[in-house]
Amino acid sequence: MDLGLAGRNYLVTGASSGVGLATTAMLLAEGARVAACARDLDRLRTRVSALPGASERAVTVAADVRDAGQVERFVAEAVAGFGGLDGVVNNAGRSLLARWSDTDDQQWHDELELKLFGVLRPVRAALPWLRKSDAAAVVNVNAILARQPEARLAATSAARAALLNLSATLAAELAGDGIRVNSVCLGLIDTGQWRRRHDELAPDRDYPEWAAELAADRGVAMGRLGRAEEVAYPIVALLSPRASYVTGATVDVGGGVGRYV
Ligand SMILES: NC(=O)c1ccc[n+]([C@@H]2O[C@H](COP(=O)([O-])OP(=O)(O)OC[C@H]3O[C@@H](n4cnc5c(N)ncnc54)[C@H](OP(=O)(O)O)[C@@H]3O)[C@@H](O)[C@H]2O)c1
Questions:
Q1: Percent of the chain, pLDDT > 70?
Q2: Mind listing the pLDDT tens digit for each residue in 51-70?
Q3: Average pLDDT for residues 38-49, to the nearest whole number?
Q4: Angle 57-61-65 (CA atoms, 0-180°, nearest 5)?
Q5: Pocket (CB within 6 angstroms of ligand 1)
Q6: Nearest alpha carbon, ligand 1 atom 37
Q7: What does the alpha-carbon distance between residue 143 and residue 120 come to, in Å, rounded to a whole number?
Q8: The domain 9-187+228-252: what is its CATH number?
């Protein structure tokens, strides 16, 4: 099926690794143009330039999504290169492994800067261009713990819940402008995030064995971590003009993890 993405223009934040890189690869494979950002420009350029189609249809920009000025420059460079925008994938992020009692005020602020303002600002900066698109879509990459908090990720869970709430507001408010807003909530996905956690917590353990135990411990029905490509597909499907009546929706990509109904 043709997803209707060829020739369209998308922003992807946090595009140098994991889900953001896989989404960028899939959009390029569908013939779309992608403006990709991350903080470490060398890594971003190296990873994105290796993707098929990148030399003709990708732009890489150093931007920290917590910084309003950098986000505005990112959007301006994308629009200068492409002439318009059809969508935004708000993916940049990481988790803060800390219980409520171990989280100080600065860490709470940092989590909200990243997970709430790091989405709000790219959407705000892209808005004039999204309004001009005939198939505008925003996808917010979120986590299942937005609805199912984990005690060991207290601030991350609360910030994710705030983002889920904001996504519903944006979907309602921007529907009149023809802009769809949806969320993809992740369970445990095998990316840089978990590789880093393994290196910190259990550097001597065999990674596949450690990851399988993690999946069992967290009650993942499918018994394994997901792959970044398995998240990229629902993101790209939600961006597609073919999903024209889907807004305010939340798609879980967690291999069956989840204790809520
Ligand atoms: N993997 C999971 O199990 C899981 C579960 C739930 C939710 N998530 C969420 O899903 C998203 C993707 O995760 P992932 O596992 O693919 O992570 P990842 O492999 O660690 O990649 C994170 C990406 O975000 C970028 N980034 C981080 N902070 C940024 C900032 N302030 N501004 C701009 N870019 C930033 C990183 O590049 P730089 O460091 O160079 O900036 C990198 O490109 C994140 O929001 C994550 O929290 C992941």
A1: 100
A2: 999 999 999 999 999 999 99
A3: 98
A4: 125
A5: 13-20, 37-40, 43, 64-66, 91-95, 114, 141, 143, 186, 188-189, 191-194, 228
A6: 38
A7: 17
A8: 3.40.50.720
Q: Which of 24, 26, 39 to mutate to test the pocket of ligand 1 (most atoms within 8 A of CB)?
A: 39
CA of 176 to the centre of ligand 1 (A): 31
Q: Give the model's pLDDT for residue 155.
A: 98
Q: What is the secondary structure of 109-120 as a DSSP string?
A: HHHHIIIIIHHH
CA contacts within 13 A on the Cβ side of 131: 9
Secondary-structure percent of the chain, ordered helix, strand, coil, rounded to 5: 50, 20, 30
Give me the residues paired with residue 141 across strands: 184
Q: How does the average pLDDT of the chain come out, rounded?
A: 97
- What confidence tens digit (pLDDT) does each residue in 118-153 have? 999 999 999 999 999 999 999 999 999 999 999 999
Segments making up each domain of the chain, as ranges: 9-187+228-252, 188-225
Distance 227 CA to ligand 1 centre (A): 14
Name residue 21's amino acid.
L
Tokens of 46: 């190296």
* Short-list 43, 231, 61, 212, CA closest to 144: 231
Residue of 51, 114, 150, 186 best suited for mutating to test ligand 1, as the one with most atoms within 8 Å of CB:
186
Q: What does the alpha-carbon distance between residue 93 and residue 141 come to, in Å, rounded to a whole number?
A: 9
Over range 224-250, report the average pLDDT. Answer: 98
Helix axes 228-239, 18-29, angle to 10 degrees: 50
